[in-house]
């Protein structure tokens, strides 16, 4: 094994795709998946690779300094790919507490430990922070976020991610810690927790329940298939310049209402429903407080410097995502009933919760 990589948040949506990608693509790396298994962490996402020789799951809280110190000492990571976070804007509006502690304090802990553990001998080391386009705030009808767009976060979630990004840059500047940040647009795909727009809508369609659309559905997001994000992370992990930031996006802007109409049409075709039956489930509800109007990423830097581009078109990605949820009813049911939370103990301790 020529490298040990600590991936935080590997049991979440994007993290599980990143863990799977690295475990399968790099048998010579040892992948440690560190995750607290909050409501968003689900080891069922990684069933297919959990027995691989180069994979290890460790349950832990990035906010717990002593626990993280022991982890660094025991596993001696050469690199950290940091995804662990509270990630849902609506939850951050209801209660920002965990967002501040995990996203800001937790990131600060990992940075401090990486600095102390690597002790200034940074050859071959990397701290790679996975961030979001939401740190840049909200766009009007024109323009896109570039790497040098000033930060202007508007929700407790985006403010906490902006805080984490600032800490990463401060550690790079002050201690010379080799660090890369990437800011990505909205991801979608298999294993996304059904509180986010696309899987929530699919779940509601499957159950014939209302699909809640905030405000008039005019807000715009730039959607990227999650495996395209995982490929970009692989590329930046290996070829990103320490000290640099890279934007990652889908070149794929959709108004929420148009996206949902497309999804409803695709679902009706697959489910053999009368045309228009899923669309009738769409229900306009009270807008999200402080709802950002539009996000759009200018991803020219990673495209020009490293040749990355999204490979999966939206039609294809949405169809794949829909098919995945339709054929993984059990995964969804476990998430909805909370059954998935028992998987860890069954799998690792062979006893009930
Ligand atoms: P997610 O909510 O699905 O997963 C987060 C994971 O972090 C979970 O497995 C959870 O158990 C773990 N976690 C939470 N608190 C922890 C703690 N204190 N200690 C250890 N583990 C903890 O999130 P996601 O959508 O997969 O996003 C992953 C990362 O990518 C986040 O940093 C997010 O800000 C960023 N991001 C997400 C998107 C998106 O569209 N989902 C877009 C751009 C960037
Ligand atoms: P979401 O998936 O929560 O991601 P983010 O807020 O990080 O972009 O929401 C995507 C868009 O969909 C956003 O404009 C809010 C909207 N939305 C709804 O209209 N209804 C919903 O039930 C949800 C969860 C989101």
Structure report:
The protein has a domain at 3-185 and 226-251 and 298-311 and 341-348: Rossmann fold. It is globular. β5, α5 and β6 (179-184) form a beta-alpha-beta unit. The strands form 3 sheets. A 7-stranded parallel beta sheet has the order 3-2-1-4-5-6-10, sandwiched between helices. Strands 7-9-11 form a 3-stranded mixed beta sheet. A two-stranded parallel sheet has the order 8-12. It contains 12 helices and 12 strands. With 353 residues, it is an alpha/beta fold. 44% of the residues are buried. The protein has helices spanning 13-25, 65-75, 89-94, 97-118, 156-175, 197-206, 226-239, 256-271, 300-306, 314-327, 329-337, 343-348, and strands at 3-8, 29-35, 55-59, 79-82, 126-132, 179-184, 186-188, 211-214, 220-225, 245-248, 253-255, 282-285. The structure holds nicotinamide-adenine-dinucleotide and thymidine-5'-diphosphate (TYD). Thymidine-5'-diphosphate (TYD) binds at residues 89, 186, 196-197, 200, 212-214, 219, 221, 256, 288.
């Amino acid at each position: 094994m020529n490298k040990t990589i600590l991936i935080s948040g590997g049991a979440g949506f994007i993290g599980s795709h990143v863990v799977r990608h690295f475990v399968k693509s790099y048998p010579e790396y040892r992948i440690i998946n560190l995750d607290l298994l909050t409501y968003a962490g689900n080891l069922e996402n990684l069933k297919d690779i959990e027995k691989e020789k180069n994979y290890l799951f460790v349950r832990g809280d990035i906010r717990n300094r002593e626990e993280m110190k022991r982890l660094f000492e025991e596993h001696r990571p050469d690199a950290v790919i940091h995804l662990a976070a509270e990630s849902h804007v609506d939850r951050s509006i209801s209660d920002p507490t965990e967002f501040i502690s995990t996203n800001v304090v937790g990131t600060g802990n990992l940075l401090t430990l990486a600095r102390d553990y690597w002790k200034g001998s940074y050859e071959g080391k990397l701290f790679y922070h996975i961030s979001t386009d939401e740190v840049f705030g909200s766009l009007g009808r024109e323009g896109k976020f570039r790497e040098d767009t000033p930060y202007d976060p508007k929700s407790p979630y985006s403010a906490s991610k902006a805080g984490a990004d600032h800490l990463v840059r401060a550690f790079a500047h002050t201690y010379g810690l080799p660090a890369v940040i990437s800011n990505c647009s909205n991801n979608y795909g298999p294993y996304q927790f059904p509180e986010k727009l696309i899987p929530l809508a699919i779940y509601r369609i499957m159950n014939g329940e209302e699909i809640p659309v905030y405000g008039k559905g005019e807000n715009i997001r730039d959607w990227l298939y999650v495996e395209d994000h995982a490929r970009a992370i692989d590329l930046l992990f290996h070829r990103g310049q320490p000290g640099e930031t890279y934007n990652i996006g889908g070149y794929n802007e959709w108004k929420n209402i148009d996206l949902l109409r497309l999804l409803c049409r695709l679902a009706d075709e697959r489910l053999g429903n009368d045309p228009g039956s899923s669309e009738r489930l769409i229900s306009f509800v009270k807008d999200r407080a402080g709802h950002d109007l539009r996000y759009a990423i200018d991803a020219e830097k990673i495209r020009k410097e490293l040749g990355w581009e999204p490979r999966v078109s939206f039609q294809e990605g949405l169809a794949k995502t829909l098919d995945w949820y339709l054929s993984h009813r059990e995964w969804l049911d476990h998430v909805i009933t909370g059954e998935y939370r028992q998987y860890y103990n069954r799998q690792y301790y062979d006893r009930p919760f």
